[in-house]
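Annotated sample (chain length 202).
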Amino acid sequence: MRRLYTWMVCTLAVAQLLLVLLSWLLSAAMTEGVRSMLSGVGVRWFFGSFVDVLASPWLVWLLLLAMAGGSLWESRLLHVAVRRPAKSNAAPNYRQRVALLTVVAFLLLYVAAIVALTAIPHAVLLSATGRLFPSAFSRALVPVVAFGVAVAGMVFGLMSGRFQTVADAVASLSNGVSRCAPLFLLYILAAQLLASLHFVFG
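Output written by the structure step:
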C-alpha cells in the first residue's frame, strides 16, 4: 500500500513537471490555444491562484469525511455492529448493546429531522422552486452525512466505554484527519495538475 501511494504521488508530481515543460515547448512552437506555464502570465497564475485552486468543496468534503471516519473507526461502532453472534466471545456485551440501540435511536431521529426539513411542502432546505436537487440540502448532503456519522460514532464510543471522556471522543475526529493525511497530499497534487491542464489547454 505504501508503495502504491508513493507511486501515485511521484506520478502526479512528474506529470506536473512534464506539463510545465510541454506547455513551454508547445508555446515556443507557436501552437494555437496553448499557454506556457513558464511565461510571465503562467508564473503569476500558478502562484496567484494556488489557494483558489485548492479551496474547493472537494477539500471540505474530504476533511469532513475524514473526521467522520475517525469517529467511526476509533469508536469501533462498525466492528461491534457487524460481529458474528455465533461466536460467544464476539457477541456485544450489555453496555455495547445499549450503545447500539442508542445510536439507532439517534440515527432515526436524525433522519426524521432531515426528512422534515426536506420532504414536507415548502420545507426550509428545498430550493425556491420546491426542488430537492439542486437545493440547500443537496449542497450540504456530504456535511449532513458526515455530521450524522461523526455524532453516532462519538455517542457509541462514550456509551460503550471505548471513549473514557468527552476529550477522547473529540480526539477521534482529529485522529481521523491524521489517518487520512496522505489523501490530502494526493488531493493537492491532483487538483493543481487538473487546474494546470485547464490553464495550458483551456
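Annotation: Residues 2-28 form the longest helix (27 residues).
Annotation: The mean pLDDT is 92.
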